[in-house]
């Protein structure tokens, strides 16, 4: 078994956290030195998270902000607010849109007898007519957005960052060269300590993705974890590791069928209203199901082979719905008996089969 296969087979992600933290910030004491955010690379990177309205707990959680900023995340955000770099957003539509996908907005519209057609913005406008403040149906906490000056600085930093992206079509939008070098240093210590040769570039890239998936799962951002699995599957598929790629595509399908959502930083009260998984939001992505078909065909797998691999891959992950419950639905989609291009009718059928 090669190293990538070993790493995949031994790195288990608990897809069903039993508790969510009500706060993701570590209230550490800021350093005493004044830091000019206008020239600090770390602060400019943080500002990129606020080009669009965002909450303090909506910044990337896989970043060691204390180290990058030279002060705590809370302290840096407070400095931004004091200096006018971050401004409060009280637009009800932005509150309703925050951290919401199309399916969630449709669900809330139905609950209030509103139309579900149109764009996310149009649905949010309808919901704002029911809740003019946006505080009941939307995010009730503090939303922040860059000032014009801060946004210009953040965009300039983003453009510079894009020039440092990895030359890899699967990873270039998710990782940069600095991420690569940091992961390479970590793996090099592990490999040498165990008597292995230095890690290859593939080892390092796999390590970055695996670490990112674990962090998303830990933070209860299960939709992002699902997306990272998809990236890992694409990565393996392009390198001819067809069975490992198929396992990951099947796990992505399981996340979709269980209605996985991003709930990082959500309070216990909010999680009761919007849980980590909601079968009423179950779906399947046409391209992922097509990849399952194609890879199974390339591997000469029968339907039973695919079913066994699905159970083997998803059972240890503790999804709310057992593989025996979700496999029949996925099987129908693989066989073309559910037309995934007929949306939203196909989603209604998937949910009716699962509920």
List keywords for this structure.
single chain; 355 residues; mainly alpha; two-stranded antiparallel ribbon; flat; disordered N terminus
In short:
The protein is mainly α. The protein is 55% helix and 2% strand. The chain has helices spanning 3-10, 41-47, 65-69, 73-83, 92-97, 102-111, 120-130, 148-162, 177-193, 201-218, 222-238, 242-257, 268-273, 286-298, 303-314, 323-334, 345-354; strands at 86-88, 144-146.
Strand content: under 5%
Number of beta strands: 2
* Overall radius of gyration: 22 Å
**Principal-axes shape call:** flat
| Low-confidence residue ranges | 1-12, 17-32
Sheet with the most strands: spatial strand order: 1-2
Sheet with the most strands? 2 strands, antiparallel
Distance between the ends:
40 Å
Please identify the structural class as seen in this structure.
Answer: mainly alpha
Helix percent reads 40-55%
pLDDT averaged residue by residue: 86
Series of H and E elements? HHHHEHHHEHHHHHHHHHH
Question: Treating each run of at least 4 consecutive H or I residues as one helix, how many helices?
Answer: 17
Walk me through this protein's architecture.
The chain is mainly α. Among the domains are: 165-215, no CATH class; 219-355, no CATH class. Helix content is 55%, strand content 2%. The chain has 17 helices and two strands. The protein has helices at 3-10, 41-47, 65-69, 73-83, 92-97, 102-111, 120-130, 148-162, 177-193, 201-218, 222-238, 242-257, 268-273, 286-298, 303-314, 323-334, 345-354, and strands spanning 86-88, 144-146. Strands 1-2 form a two-stranded antiparallel ribbon. Helix 1 (3-10) runs parallel beside helix 10 and helix 10 (201-218) packs antiparallel against helix 11. The two termini are 40 Å apart. Mean pLDDT is 86; it is low at 1-12 and 17-32.
């Amino acid at each position: 078994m090669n190293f990538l296969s070993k790493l995949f087979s031994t790195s288990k992600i608990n897809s069903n956290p039993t508790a969510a933290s009500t706060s993701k910030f570590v209230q550490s004491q800021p350093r005493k030195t004044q830091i000019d955010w206008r020239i600090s690379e770390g602060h400019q990177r943080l500002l990129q998270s606020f080009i669009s309205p965002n909450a303090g707990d909506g910044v990337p959680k896989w970043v060691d902000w204390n180290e990058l900023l030279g002060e705590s995340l809370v302290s840096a955000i407070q400095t931004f607010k004091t200096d006018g770099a971050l401004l409060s957003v009280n637009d009800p539509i932005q509150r309703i849109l925050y951290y919401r996908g199309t399916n969630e907005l449709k669900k809330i519209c139905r609950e209030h007898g509103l139309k579900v057609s149109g764009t996310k913005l149009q649905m949010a406008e309808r919901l704002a007519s029911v809740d003019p403040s946006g505080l009941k149906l939307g995010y009730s906490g503090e939303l922040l957005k860059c000032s014009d000056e801060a946004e210009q600085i953040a965009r300039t930093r983003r453009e510079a960052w894009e020039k440092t992206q990895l030359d890899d079509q699967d990873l270039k939008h998710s990782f940069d060269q600095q991420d690569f070098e940091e992961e390479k240093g970590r793996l090099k210590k592990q490999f040498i300590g165990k008597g292995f040769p230095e890690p290859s570039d593939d080892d390092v890239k796999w390590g970055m993705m695996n670490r990112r998936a674990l962090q998303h799962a830990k933070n209860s951002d299960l939709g992002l974890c699902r997306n990272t699995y998809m990236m890992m599957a694409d990565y393996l598929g392009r390198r001819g590791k067809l069975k490992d790629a198929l396992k990951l595509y099947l796990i992505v399908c399981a996340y979709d069928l269980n209605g996985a959502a991003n709930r990082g930083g959500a309070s216990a009260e909010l999680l009761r209203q919007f849980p980590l998984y909601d079968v009423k939001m179950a779906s399947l992505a046409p391209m992922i199901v097509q990849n399952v078909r194609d890879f199974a065909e390339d591997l000469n797998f029968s339907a039973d082979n695919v079913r066994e691999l699905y159970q083997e891959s998803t059972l240890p992950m503790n999804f709310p719905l057992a593989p025996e419950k979700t496999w029949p639905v996925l099987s129908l989609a693989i066989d073309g008996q559910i037309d995934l291009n007929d949306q939203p009718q196909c989603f209604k059928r998937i949910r009716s089969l699962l509920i």
